Amino acid sequence: MTVNEKKCKGITIVSLNGSLDAASAPGVLNSSSALTDTQSIVIDLSGVDFLDSSGLGCLVGIARKKREQGGDVRLACLNEKLRKVFDITRASRLFDIYDDAEYAAGTAAKK
Amino acid sequence: MQQERQRKNNYPMNTFMTMSLPSDIHYARIASKTAMMVAEFFSGQSGIAEKREEFCHAFELAVAEAFANSVFNAAPQEKERQVMISFSSEKSELMVSVSDANPEFDPEMQVPDILSYPEHGYGLVLIRQLMDSVRYSRQDGMNQLSMIKNAG
């Protein structure tokens, strides 16, 4: 799992690449301070080719901590396999999900 | 003899592949990718093109979840144990069984309330939704989770 960051409209977009699963999820939080600080972010999942329940749990944990601290997290670019996981677990009720990461950053910046 | 054993287990299927991996989460991707490839091969042999990708992803994810459950259910001093995975088929049905010598567990976990931000508890929920049939058995100190999906 590799993690990259970029700024768009003042919002940090964190791009995850690889498998977000039980093996990689514990290390994700340590790979980017944007995932754990109070700012609102967008997580771009276009590079994630596999997501399991531990990976989903990692995203849920990020959302909980952000919202407790007044921030938020938006998700972008989920492929069909990832959407299936979100649909089954109803996690799509917990996140605003966008097809485009920069558009998601724009909506976060306006808020 | 093999068929007789299979009948006793109520799974009249032909086992064509078994593998054993260390009970270590870093091997989960090997298990899940192998399951995906077996499903690809099986669905190709069955001549089924429609929903093939969905069929293969179901096995990839279900085995990842079952393997992770097995690793996380092992007592810390038992990390050198193995997780056994076997693949069987009958007509257009593919079955994967994940077995271990861990303590017994409850396979009837309910869907967690997503709005309370649970970070765990989705694995068995995913397995049950992805597969047509899921059976748990405990025999001779071994857990066995058998997951069946029809490629048709």
Overview in brief:
The complex is a heterodimer of chains A (111) and B (152). Chain A has 111 residues and is an alpha/beta fold.
What does this structure look like?
The complex is a heterodimer of chains A (about 110) and B (about 150). With about 110 residues, chain A is α/β, with parallel strands linked by helices. Chain A has one domain (about 1-110): STAS domain (Transcription Regulator spoIIAA, 2-Layer Sandwich), CATH 3.30.750.24. In chain A, about 35% of the residues lie in helices and about 30% in strands. Chain A has helices spanning about 25-30, 55-70, 80-90, 100-110; strands at about 1-10, 10-20, 40-50, 75, 95-100. Chain A is globular and about 30 Å long. Chain B has about 150 residues and is α+β, with helices and mostly antiparallel strands. Chain B has a single domain (about 1-150), classed as Histidine kinase-like ATPase, C-terminal domain (Heat Shock Protein 90), CATH 3.30.565. Chain B is about 35% helix and about 30% strand. Chain B contains four helices and five strands. Chain B has helices at about 1-10, 30-45, 50-75, 125-130, and strands spanning about 15-20, 80-90, 95-100, 135-140, 140-150. In chain B, strands 1-2-3-5-4 form a five-stranded antiparallel beta sheet, with helices on one face. The longest helix of chain B is centred in the middle third of the chain and has 22 residues, at about 50-75. Chain B starts with a helix and ends with a strand. Mean pLDDT of chain B is about 90; it is low at about 1-10. Classes of the chains: A alpha/beta (about 110), B alpha+beta (about 150).
